[in-house]
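[scheduler] slot 2 assigned
[scheduler] job type: sequence-to-structure, two independent chains
[scheduler] chain ordering preserved from manifest
[runner] begin chain α
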Amino acid sequence: MKNIYLSSYLAIKEVIRNRVRFLMVALVIALITLLVLFIAALGEGLSNANRQYVANLDAQLIVFLEKSDFSITASRLETNTVKAVRRVEGVADAGPIHTSNSEIVSLPEPLKISVLGVEAERPGMPLLIEGRQFRGGEAREAVMDRSVALRTGLAVGDEIEIRSTQGTEDRFYDLKIVGLVEEQAYFFQPTIFVPPATWELIRPQSASDLESDTPYPNIIAVKLTDPASTEEMRLRLTNQISNIEVANIQTTINNIPGYTAQQGTVQTQGAFTLLIGVLVIGGFFQIQILQKIPQIGVLKAIGSSNLVVGLSAVIQIIVVTAIGVGIGAMLNYLFSLGLPPTIPLEFNGMRSVIAILLLLLIGPLGGLVSIIYAIRIEPLKALRLG
């Protein structure tokens, strides 16, 4: 206990006496912290913007067209496949999901959106937080996700105008917003939900598609009676229904175009930033130890143990690193308050905590060489008497 007290006293006393020098290092660590937390938030935000809707589905399995490689955009199922899936034993419910893109043009600035055709009260339709479900058939009604409301100021009861390219012409459709759901971004875009028949009417179509009025679903969200039996039900669905392949939610997310590569890139950037932090902290404290070799020699000459010297260096590194990380976390919070909602940043609590713990760890790790060097200093050589 005495060694800890003495080490703490020496470490903190030196930080106070050389506060300008140590503050500069703490500010460098703060900038590294800001960058690491920003990259972590960007990774989480991009991840959510790409997979949010799929990850929040009230379903355990997704049915695709056979040989579509679990790609939502490459899959297009027959309409009778939905009924066939619902008849399979162990399936609690199944809902078709139709995907396309469009643009709201009745705003001061047009907003690109994802338009999803789903059936009300079925898997694929998120829970309402305001308003009511849309009616069936070709009802010109829509439910929007909260991010649309945040970006545009639209509310339940408002009407929007959608532009859709039909063949070689642009056509415009009016929809009334009747409900609101939590944020459900799909392929980096905010989302509105419409009945399948309405989706077929307003979706962008080629000239050949104009002759058909049948809404073919891209995928089917399957809710199981026993959510734990996903593998068994996957095999059962594949065996009983022809021309399909089935995946769980995580496999579906991993096969979203660009998702895996995007997350790998962001994580690599975060790892290199931490490595830079290790080198910066290590370099500074190595220079710091070299500058005070005579002082360490005096401490050892008057009886201070290697434990006291080494522990003092560790505490000093932890204190300076903690101050830098604290300043960086505060700057990161203030920085996030001024960002517009269009920037996909998501300050996830767990990711931020892990990032902060790693940042606190890189301090002692970066200073490990200087700690070992301080312990190995010989008093007589340090005082040039050896």
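[runner] end chain α
[runner] begin chain β
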Amino acid sequence: MFDTLAKILNVKELRGKLVITFLLLVVFRLGSFIPTPGVNVAAITEFISSAQGGAMGAVMSMADMFTGGALSSMAIFGLGIMPYITASIIFQLLTAIIPSLSRIAHEGATGRKKINQYVRASTVVLCLIQSGMIAWAMATSGDAGSSTFIAEGVSRWEFFFYVVLSLTAGTMFLMWLGEQIDEFGIGNGISLLIMAGILSRIPRAIFRLVEGADPTSAGSSITLGVIVLLVILFVAMTLAVVMITLGTRRVPIMQAKAVRGRKTYGGQRQFLPLKVNQANVIPIIFGQAIMQVVAGFVGMILGETMGVFFSPGSFWYTVCYIILILFFCYFYTAIQFNPNEIADNLKQGGMYIPGIRPGKRTAEHLEKIMNRIALAGGVFLAIIAVVPQFISRGLNVDYDISGLLGGTGLLIVVGVALDVVQRIESYLLMRNYEGFGLAGGKIKGRRG
């Protein structure tokens, strides 16, 4: 391991990219502690502490995960990078549905640049809407004259202006920060910012775990057996996520033989890799967003009595959550994976699947395989998503602790970490160094 680290530091270009990436992530973390002007931080902290353990606390914990705690402290990076992620996903879906956007996306680099401009403009709109809703809710939470969340000497309209401007500017700065990591650092900048925010919760979770296990503490409820079980579950869930993230279903394909003179070309056996988790973390994000809206709507319209049935961790919340994950897994996979296009590309390249006729039959065969893979991937995502809820209730631990054992956070951290490792490995292999794999081999997905 130390030998590999030494090789990494020996590559000047790679060393520079790692240093730049680290410094930009430090800037991101520093901005997460700068409070928004006009906000009473003490009142925000007191409100978050009082909401812990309830339905509102669970929702806040989920939403706060992507910002690294900046939302709960109302820092200038309180919205995080999620508005940009949401806008990107929306345009990714619209590109597959709207023919005009699809034509723009297929124009190469020019088309991608134009789509990216649309995404940035949509990000500003989403930031204004989300920050406006947060500012309005905080400004109108108190009596008719004032709100406890507004700092002394600041009017409501000044507070509204400060919050909307700061949160919107903070998200746009994070978007620029991610682009700088893409250009001058290593790895996907936006994904690294999200991962940094998630990993920043680990010290807080460890502190809560130690505090709960302290026999001198009034709230002590965690035994040594529970801690050992949590460690085992964390290792097991991490290994499972790594295996599924790298897992592929390899479809065998053959290249048609071509005879030229006395020589025969082609005929090699190759494989078409189909990812088991084709939809990645998108179904969980969509499912969480919809269920949070449903839980808030039911509680507001039908009252707290009915709202309990759809609060995070309840039976009906979990059932609907699982159904949404499975639905979005199939939906997003169907949008991302086009069997007709792949079948046409194989046919034009003189390749075919053994035993399957090229063209329509090949497309039907690939669609059948992908449907089975989507089911396996959807079931896996559903299990990963609900594990933190069951652990939190079954072992009586805080959601900040159980949230590290599954859900969106673990999937993102593992996926981004694997991507960074593979990029570093590619630099090492270009310099004739060995990679991170066992016995110096490359990182490979599981054979389907």
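[runner] end chain β
[qc] chain β: Residues 360-394 form the longest helix (35 residues).
[scheduler] slot 2 released
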